[in-house]
Amino acid sequence: MEYRTLGKTGISVSEVGLGCEHLQGKPAETVARVVHAALDGGVNILDAFMSEPQVRSDIGAALRGRRDRVTIQGHIGSVWHDGQYERSRDGEQCRIFVEDFLRRVGTDYIDIGMIHFVDTLDDLKTVEEGPVLDYARRLKEQGVIRAIGMSSHDPVTARRAVEAGWLDVLMFSVNPAYDLLPENTYIDNYFNVDTWRGEGFSGINPNRAALYEACAAHGVGITVMKTYGAGFLFNPGLSPFGRTFTPAQLIHYALSRPAVASALIGCQTPEEVAAALAYENASPEERDYGAVLAATAQFGVTRQCVYCNHCHPCPVGIDVAAVNRCLDTLRTGTDAQDTVRAQYAALEAHAGDCLACGACEERCPFGVGVIGRMREAAELFGI
Ligand code: SF4
Ligand code: SF4
Predict the structure, then answer these.
(1) Element holding 52 (H helix, E strand)
(2) C-alpha angle with apex 16: 248 to 304, nearest 5 degrees?
(3) Cβ neighbours, 10 Å, residue 162
């Protein structure tokens, strides 16, 4: 298992993590088998947004004796009423269900206190100006949570929170289909099959690209939800690409976005955990999602680097996707230039090493002018 640093928190998390959503309603024994399969495979981060009491207790039982080796995302504002999950912005309700989480999971701290499901600017205002953010800050001061997170599906809302400066970790829905959805797609339609069959796809949604770059620039680590697109991307009849992706391709897509530290995979069985963990041993060819994207001409992903590394190998060992990621982040005029420059400096080969051989440009399915970008990167980064 490879581990990545979760932005400015400094927490080291497994690049493949576990989403526990699908464990709700499962027998305790199944919950334990899934959690143990993940931990035994090197997973050290899990998300448990669910407010349902039994699954919280079962996850706690499954973690007994191993809790300190796991980074837990617990959610502030995920509550349970009359047998139903609800989202709340009421300070007292948030407190009751955070304390319920701690009690049921059997811990006295939550690594990432995720302010739950903030998808509109109005809701963000409510969070920031109401009791929820105050409560999260108090929990952090008391050491009950180690970092403040927020989960969101909306790039504009999420970016506003990132740029406000209080956010440590963002949980965001990332997969190729969501990234390519037209900019004006209403959030409630993300999961609508008709949306995915519609017109108007024209490259990566600039708001989403800008969000990832803002996270990288501000040191906000991203943990990914919906890595598999709710399963749509495995179904040839539902995938908007007309072709299916493999788990390894989708995990690699998520992990290739700037600032992403971990792709959380919702698993219901140990076999699904094993399928996700197989990513760690997948070859570059098995991870390569570029060909699937490129085969979908209607998306018009041209001259835009999607960080797929389909253009490898480079004779001097330049990681083209990584250089392009750093370049795109620096081009945003980020305040965190030092961070980006440090990431760039840590690469094994730099744009200044480019021989301008053109091999990568021949292989890039998106017509990216790599040689020109290498020149620009060498100039901006100085190596
Ligand atoms: S230059 Fe092209 S092939 Fe290479 S990483 Fe970017 S999009 Fe992929
Ligand atoms: S043009 Fe530069 S980056 Fe591309 S393969 Fe050749 S040496 Fe590598």
Answers:
(1) none
(2) 55
(3) 26
Q: Is the pTM of this model over 0.85?
A: yes
Distance CA 179, CA 205 (A): 6
State the pLDDT at residue 300: 59
Query: Quick one: which ligand is closest to 365's CA?
Result: 1
> Which residue reads 């072709």 in tokens?
243
Query: What residues are in contact with ligand 1 under a 6 Å CB criterion?
Result: 290, 305-311, 320-321, 324, 360, 364, 366, 368, 370
Closest ligand 2 atom number to CA of residue 370: 4
User: Domain 3-283 - what CATH class?
Assistant: alpha beta
* Phi, psi dihedrals of residue 88, rounded to the nearest 5°: -130, 150
Tell me, what's the pLDDT at 266? 95
State if residue 354 touches ligand 2 by the CB under 6 angstroms criterion: yes
Q: Which ligand is nearest to the Cα of residue 309, counting in written order?
A: 1
Q: What is the mean pLDDT of each run of 10 residues along the chain (383 residues)?
A: 95 97 95 98 97 96 96 97 94 97 97 96 96 98 98 94 97 91 72 65 81 92 93 81 90 95 97 97 93 71 79 95 90 74 93 96 90 96 94
Give the pLDDT confidence score for residue 338 in this predicted structure.
81
Rounded Cα distance, 246 and 237, in Å = 15
For residues 354 and 371, is the Cβ–Cβ distance under 8 A?
A: yes
Structural domain boundaries in the chain: 3-283, 320-381
Nearest atom within ligand 1 for CA of residue 309: 5
Query: Any residues with CB less than 8 A from the CB of 127 and at least 6 apart, and which?
Result: 89, 115, 118, 133, 150
User: What is the residue with the minimal CA distance to atom 7 of ligand 1?
Assistant: 305
Q: What is the DSSP letter of 222?
A: E
